[in-house]
Amino acid sequence: MTYVVTESCIRCKYTDCVDVCPVDCFREGPNFLVIDPEECIDCTLCVAECPVEAIFAEDDVPAGQEQFIELNAELSKQWKPIVERKDALPDAEDWASRKDKLGELKR
Prior knowledge:
Layout: E1 3-5, H1 16-20, E2 26-28, E3 33-35, H2 45-49, E4 55-57, H3 67-76, E5 80-81, H4 92-95
Antiparallel strand pairs: 1-4, 2-3, 2-5
């Protein structure tokens, strides 16, 4: 089992999770982070660090967000690793509680 970044991260991209990851499994896109399922060691450290509660165990991904399992796997092959915390996106607070953000995802 691996961990998955879901919709809540889109247009926020808080990187608190990156700081605690012992294996550098996060990948960075323009406005979203993903977890490389090949690198994730299921340590759970990132889950508690996410301020928008966007990270779930693969088996616990909320109903309606299952497509993020495949999306993390796909985009992790395309995006570069992020190994240090960065500032969140400038309007992250405005987007943090919004729903239905998949259309906002930039690849």
